[in-house]
Amino acid sequence: EVQLVESGGGLVQPGGSLRLSCAASGFTFDDYAMSWVRQAPGKGLEWVSIISWRGDSLYYAESVKGRFTISRDNAKNTLYLQMNSLRSEDTAVYYCTLDTVARDYWGQGTRVTVSS
Question: Of 45, 74, 97, 103, which has the fewest CB atoms closer than 10 Å, so is most exposed?
Answer without folding.
Answer: 103
